[in-house]
Design a protein that fits this description.
10 helices, D-Maltodextrin-Binding Protein, domain 2, 10-stranded mixed sheet, about 325 residues, about 20% strand
Length: about 325
Amino acid sequence: MNAKSTGTLSRRHAMLLSAGAVASFVAPAAMAQSAPASYPERAVKIVVPFAPGAGTDAMARLVAQKLGEVMNATFVVDNKAGASGAIGTQFVAQAPGDGYTLLLAASPFTTVAASLPSANYDPLRQFAPVGMIATGPLVWAANSQLPVSNMKELVKLARQKPGALNYGSAGAGGVNHLVLELLKARTGTFITHIPYRGVAPATMDMIGGQIQLVTGTIPALLPFIKNGSIKPLAVTSAKRSSALPDVPSMTEAGLPGIDVVNYFALMAPAGTPPAIITALNSALNKVVALPEVLARFKADAVEAAPGSPALLGHFIEADYRAWRNVVKTQNLKIE
């Protein structure tokens, strides 16, 4: 979705979402609590539910450093990887709502909860949104020899040869998988999904011709786009990316209403006092406006997405329910 401080965050999946009330993300019991004037009095832990070195980990370390500078406090990153991010996410869901344990959430926060029964956490009821950090689209990419140059031609080929095209994802239930299912649901096509342990090996197989398609972040695929090993067909968002200015958006590709982005956000356990949420949100909005942070975002092909906890809550609600609709529409059974 497009994430802007003044814009709406739930335009993606227009054909799958219906209007409705957005649930409250802050438990009523938390409303009576207040933040200590000296918060934070000790180190704040930002849990990353993925291994060190991943994009989510790098974002968490940047945010931890800058939040520490803005709040004159200590923020540390704690990696708790496993189960497609569910282990670390469950840990935060069960942590005390005291402001000292936070989650660096990314797209698996909602896609895994929507698609994997074993995820064992509720992104709407067990968490309080703190604030969005940044968003950026994925890019549809194809083997250089595939006889298509855009999404319209890809859809036409997929319709002519059901099941003949192979698509590699970073794993079942992730955003790379579900964006394919969304495309299939929207276009009535059948493209074979092959889960990998990450986008990198899928990309290598696509270059080698074992599969024909992937989606990945722009930084991950850009070197191969530049050297001609793969060809970009479109970015997954409703607007173009400044990092790939010549690559069309989904709207321009003839698929309006599809607006998929990877996102980074901070979440706290449900019951965290609103005053602490407010303090963290204020500091986070300052962080994402820092020139050095904006420069880092540009290098990573993402855009700053400052906003209120309520705005993030709307985004998470819409994202989660939209992916659940995709899972139901496609009758996905993921273990």
